[in-house]
Amino acid sequence: MNKIKFALLSIIVLLILIFVYSVTYNFAEPKAYDFMVRHVLTEKLPFHNKQVYGSGDVVLVMIDTITVDKYRWPWKRELYCKLFEYFHKYAQPKVVVHDSIIGSLDKDNPESDKKFFETINKFDNLVSGFMPLINESWGDKNFGEKYDRQFKEKFALKIDNELTEIPSFYPGLMPFPQEYFNAIKHIGSVSFLSGFIDGRLSSNALDEVQRNYEYMLAYKENFYPSLALEAFLIANNFPKIKVTDSYIEFPDLNYRIKHSVTKHQMFVPIKYYKLWNGYSHPAISAIDIMNSYDNLQKGKKAVINPDIFKDKIVVIGANVPAGGGLNDTKNTPVYSAHPGADIQATVIDNILHNDFLKVLPKAFNILITILGMIAVYAVIRIHTLFKSITLAFALIAGYLLFSTVCFYFGCVVNVITPVVMYIVTMIIAYIHKFVLENRSKEKVKSAMGKYMSEDVMKRVVMNIDNLGLGGKKAVVTVLFSDIRGFTSMSETMPAEQVSQILNEYFTEMEPIITKYNGIINKFIGDAVMAIFGEPIQDKNHALNAVKCGYEMLMKVKELQKKWAEEGKPKIDIGIGINTGEVFVGNIGSVNRMEYTVIGDTVNLASRLESYNKVYKTKMLISSSTYEQTKSILDVIRISDVEIRGKSHKMDIYEVLKVIC
Fold it and tell me: Do the strands 593-598 and 572-588 form a parallel or antiparallel pair, or are they unpaired?
C-alpha cells in the first residue's frame, strides 16, 4: 500500500512539475527573453557618424513624414525613380534593397508605372520584395500554377539540398503585375513570422513579437531568399549554397549560418542592436535623396553626398506613423514599433558580419533545470530552515547571474523557466520535509509514549521551547498499587516468566488508569504510581481515582482466573489513595528531568498502600479522599491509625465497594 501511495504521489508531483514547466516555458519565457534582449544583449554598433549608430555597411533611406509632407501619398511611382536614379547614376552602393511590395498597377498613371519599371530594369543589384501568403492559396488554380512555374524559373535558388524534410508552410504567393515581374531581376521575401526562438509559432495575439528571421524559405519544394540573403548573395557574387538540417552553408566563402528547421520554416534568431531615435542604423530621409538627385541633375551640390553610399547596402523603406500603408513597423524585443526596414538592415548586418546569437540546445536547458532542482531539493533536505532558504535563493540568484552573463556574450539560455522550477521545487521540498518531520515526530511521540504518559508527552510538546526545572502547587489524588508477594514469587520463578506476568498485568492496568483521566507517573518494580488531576485537569479527580482503583481490583480477579487456568501463580494487589496538595512539575537536573509530583500527599498514599499488608485489606484511602467520595462508597473506617512520619493519629478507610 505504501508503495502504491508513493507511486501515486510521485506521479502527481511529476505532473505538477510538467504543467508548471510547460506554462512557464510557453508564456513567461518569451517575455524573459525579450527583457534580456532589450536590457542585456543589445549592443551599440560601431559609430557610422556622430548622429546615428550603424555598422557602416548598411544604410537606411526612409520615406518618412517629411517626405510625404512634400509629396502627398499615395504618390506616382515615377517619384521612386528619383531615388533609384540617384543610386544608379551618382552613388555606387553594393546592393539596393527595396523593402516594399508592388502588388498592382497604378491604372490612373500608366506612364508613371512604365517609367518606374524601366528604371528598376536598369539595376543588376536591386532586390525587390515579395510576399508569401500565409492563409490564402491561389483563387485561380490555373493562374497559380502558371505563376508558380514562372516564379520558380526566374527566382528559385539553386542549392545543394541535404534537408531531411523540406518545410511546408506557405500555400501561395502574392503575385506581381506582369510588367513588374519582367522588370525586376532579384527578389527577397519580406515575411516575418512571430514566434519564439525555438520555432514555436505565436498563437497569442498579444505576443506578435518578431524574434526570428527566415533567411531562406521553402515554397512548394523550391527555395527562395529573403531580402537579407539575396543582398548577401549579390554582395558576394552569388556563392554556392548548401542547406542541411543545421546550417545554411556557403562553401566558396568557407562560411555557414546555424539555423533551426521545423516542419513550417527554417529560421535564425535575430540579434538586435541598440536604437537611436527609433533606428539602429543610419536613417536618411528619402526627401534628402530626392532633393540631392534634383540638385545633381541641375549641376548643384547634393544635399547628401553620394560617396557615403559607396560599397554600402542601402535599404529603402517607409515609416510614416498614421500614414495609410506606410507605417511598416513590427513588434520586436527592443521596440514595439520597430521600423521594418531597420529590422531588415539588422538581419543583413547579422549575416554580413556573422553576428548571430548562440542558442544553447533545449536538452542543455532541461539538464540545467533538473540539476538545479536536485541541488535545491538537497539543500532543503540537508540544512536547517534559515540556511536552506539562504542557499536556495543564493542558487537562484547565481543562475540569474549566469543567464545574464550568457546573454551579455550573445548566448541564449532559458531565464525564467529554471527559476520558477527551482521555486516550485523549494515549495515541494519544504512540504515533503514538513511531512517527514511530522511523521518522525509522531514516531518519536509514539515511542516515548511507551515510557511516559501521553498527556505528559503532549505537555512537553506544547512547551517544547520553554522546558525547564520547576512547576506549581496543585491539589491532586495520588494512587499507589503494589503486587503482594512479588519478592517471593520472583525468587521462585524464572525472571522471564516473572517479566511476562508483570507485562500482562501492567498492560491491563494502563487503560483503566487512562479511562479515569489518570496518568501513570512511573512503574517502580511491581508498583504503579498514578496521578489524577494533573496534568489532565479534572475536578472529580478523587472520585475517578477511587473508581479506577476499584476497577483495577476487579480486573485482577479476572486475571487470577486466567492465570490459574494457565498454571501461573496467584497474585494479588494492594492500593493506597490520598488526596492533597503537592508540587507538580519538572524535577531533576537541567540535562535530565522528570515530570512528577512530590510532597507529603505522595508519601501518605505510598504508606496507605503498604498498610494493606497490616490490615489484610486490598484498598485503603485517606480521610481527605473519603470526604470527596463518600457518597459512592461502601467502606470500613479504621480509626486512630498511627502513620509513620505523622505526629498524630488519623482515620483511614477500607473500600469495600464502589456504588455507581
Answer: antiparallel
State how far the Cα of 21 lies from the Cα of 424, in Å rounded to an integer. 10
Q: Is 234 left (phi over 0), alpha (psi -120 to 50) or beta?
A: alpha
User: How far apart, in whole angstroms, are the C-alpha atoms of residue 635 and residue 650?
Assistant: 16
Task: Name the DSSP class of 634.
Answer: E
Domain architecture of the chain: domains with CATH: 42-158+168-240+262-357 (no CATH), 360-447 (no CATH), 466-658 (3.30.70.1230)
Chain position carrying cell 533545470 = 369
pLDDT digits over 117-147, tens only?
A: 999 999 999 999 999 988 776 667 788 899 9
Angle at 605 between CA 604 and CA 608, to 5 degrees: 85
Please state whether the predicted TM-score (pTM) of the whole model is above 0.85.
Answer: no
Distance CA(245)–CA(511), nearest Å, equals 78
CA angle (249, 252, 257) in 5-degree steps: 20
Q: What is the pLDDT of residue 246?
A: 95
Continuous H helices in 24-109? 29-36, 65-70, 78-85
Residue 462: what pLDDT?
52
Residue 546 has phi, psi (to 5 degrees) of -65, -45
Peptide bond into 74 cis (omega under 30): yes
User: Whole-angstrom distance between the N-terminal and C-terminal Cα of the chain?
Assistant: 47
Q: Measured between alpha carbons, how far is 477 from 556 in angstroms, rounded to an integer? A: 22
Pairing state of beta strands 126-130 and 241-243? unpaired
Convert the pLDDT of each residue in 206-243 to its tens digit.
478 999 999 999 999 999 999 999 999 999 999 999 99
